[in-house]
TrEMBL record, chain A:
It comes from Marinobacter sp. MMG032. It comes from the Bacteria. Pfam families: CcmB (PF03379). Belongs to the CcmB/CycW/HelB family. It is found in: Cell inner membrane. One of its GO terms (molecular function) is heme transmembrane transporter activity. InterPro entries: Cyt_c_biogenesis_CcmB, Cyt_c_CcmB_bac. The keyword Transmembrane helix applies. Keywords: Cell inner membrane, Cell membrane, Cytochrome c-type biogenesis, Membrane, Transmembrane, Transmembrane helix, Transport. This is Heme exporter protein B. Its main location: membrane.
Automatic annotation (TrEMBL), chain B:
Residues 6-212 form the ABC transporter domain. The keyword Transmembrane helix does not apply. This is Cytochrome c biogenesis ATP-binding export protein CcmA. Transmembrane segments: none annotated. It comes from the Bacteria. InterPro entries: AAA+_ATPase, ABC_transporter-like_ATP-bd, ABC_transporter-like_CS, ABC_transptr_haem_export_CcmA, P-loop_NTPase. It comes from Marinobacter salsuginis. Keywords: ATP-binding, Cytochrome c-type biogenesis, Membrane, Nucleotide-binding, Translocase, Transport. SMART domains: AAA. Pfam families: ABC_tran. GO terms for biological process: cytochrome complex assembly.
Length: 241, 212
């Protein structure tokens, strides 16, 4: 074979920057989500329904609702994020886009971070937006509602980031739902405790700065460490695929 | 004159306590088409996923351009195009949007180029129809459109002829051959009767494997 006269396709050196690739991943996830709106509404409807069932099922008394309202909202938000987690990687896994994502030249943890960000914008953020309405419904005062929104604003990204680890780990399994909850709930508990604790101390008129700082620390910790864990978990799940 | 793009030395892979292949060594040179052969369950897809970097459960050594692959993951990924069983097409997006998303992380191209690539795979008029309304073969063609605009020298194609009609199959065969003549390297698995001049074969099956 006269290999000498063959041109050799040159190796490509230039690569797309990580930020541009993250933007593309984020934009695609948003576009797909808005083509399938019922999936978006599902966790939101769950959130609203759980919160509105408490006055009916337990007690409609103002004193009870005012005392437990923040807790109810936090638990409902936590569960509805949990409900939406299975979709985070599942569709991508099934249609093969996840394989292509892993094979992109950019660091995987950044791409996973972009996917998690899209997940938060689509599930966590709407919950925060709905919270003032539901807060009024459970007779929280204005100050408590403000603090509650703030804790959810800091807390729900943590839920998405930690949840992504569990979603990535249980990806290859047939009945992932139960295992996912078992894995993730223990990690959610500290966020829940500090989230509701912040609102409780705000209701008593105590300063909440320390609580918020701790929640901020949770967020920073999750933001810096969780994407690495999710990326590693994705590789493991795909390796068995 | 040219060094191998990808070199495998004594690869061994075990799956479900069964050795798929052992002592598998081969080189993928620029300008060649290599076909991985073997019966169902002999590990063709597993081998391709190993080569692509998706499967990490193997032992042996893989070299990219003479250097250990693990040391230059980014260069390797940038220069390798893998098309798997699952084509990476989102049913809710249109072919154009899919192609844009798939190329954005590697080499963003303007829309006219992408449209032209889709037309080249016979999807003219379907560029803006959601992929879930397309047939299985048309969805595969969306993924194949990537081959028309790919600048990666190494292609790893798993069952690339699945659900493609006979005219499409010969078009792909021509494309692979043209690619090899331009200096690219192609590794394919297929049950389709592919026979290109100068084609290399890697035969798997029966626990041990050897290169012909």
């Amino acid at each position: 074979m006269n290999a000498d006269c063959r041109p050799v396709l040159s190796l490509q050196q230039d690569s797309v920057g990580a930020l541009a690739a993250m933007k593309a991943v984020f934009a695609r996830d948003m576009k797909v989500a808005f083509r399938q709106r019922q999936d978006l509404l599902n966790p939101l409807l769950f959130f609203v329904m759980v919160v509105s069932l408490f006055p009916l099922g337990v007690s409609p008394e103002v004193a009870f609702l005012r005392e437990s309202g923040a807790g109810i909202l936090w638990v409902a938000a936590l569960l509805s994020v949990l409900l939406s987690l299975d979709h985070l990687f599942r569709h991508d896994f099934d249609d093969g886009t996840l394989e292509q994502l892993v094979l992109q030249p950019q660091p995987l943890f950044l791409l996973v971070l972009a996917k998690t960000a899209a997940h938060w914008v689509l599930t966590g953020l709407p919950l925060v937006v709905l919270t003032p309405v539901l807060g009024v419904m459970v007779h929280l005062d204005g100050n408590s509602i403000g603090v509650l929104c703030l804790t959810l604003l800091i807390g729900t990204p943590v839920l998405s980031l930690i949840g992504a680890i569990g979603a990535a780990l249980t990806l290859g399994l047939r009945s992932a739902g139960v295992l996912l909850s078992l894995l993730i709930i223990p990690l959610y508990i500290p966020v829940l405790i500090f989230g509701t604790g912040t609102v409780a101390s705000a209701a008593e008129g105590a300063p909440v700065g320390a609580y918020l700082a701790l929640m901020g620390a949770f967020l920073v910790l999750a933001l810096t460490l969780a994407p690495f864990a999710s990326a590693a978990a994705l590789r493991i799940s795909l390796s068995n695929g | 004159m040219s060094e191998p793009l990808l070199q495998a030395v004594e690869l061994q892979c075990e799956r479900d306590e069964r050795i798929l292949f052992r002592d598998l060594s081969f080189s993928i040179l620029p300008g060649t088409v290599t076909r991985v052969e073997g019966p169902n369950g002999s590990g063709k897809t597993t081998l391709l996923r190993m080569l692509a970097g998706l499967n990490d459960a193997w032992s042996g050594n893989l070299f990219w351009c003479g250097q250990p692959r693990s040391a230059q993951r980014e260069e390797f990924l940038r220069n390798t195009l893998y098309l798997g069983h699952r084509p990476g097409i989102k049913p809710l997006l249109t072919p154009l949007e899919n192609l844009r998303a798939l190329t954005a992380g590697r080499r963003p191209l303007p829309d006219p180029v992408l449209r032209q690539a889709l037309e080249g795979t016979g999807l003219a008029g379907f560029q803006d129809v959601p992929c879930r309304n397309l047939s299985a073969g048309q969805q595969r063609r969306v993924a194949l459109a990537r081959l028309l605009i790919a600048d990666e020298p190494l292609w790893l194609l798993d069952e690339v002829f699945t659900a493609i009609d006979s005219a499409g199959v010969s078009a792909i065969e021509n494309l692979l051959q043209q690619r090899a003549s331009e200096g690219g390297a192609v590794v394919v698995t297929t049950h389709h009767d592919l026979n290109l001049p100068g084609m290399q074969r890697i035969v798997l099956g029966g626990g041990a494997a050897n290169e012909c």
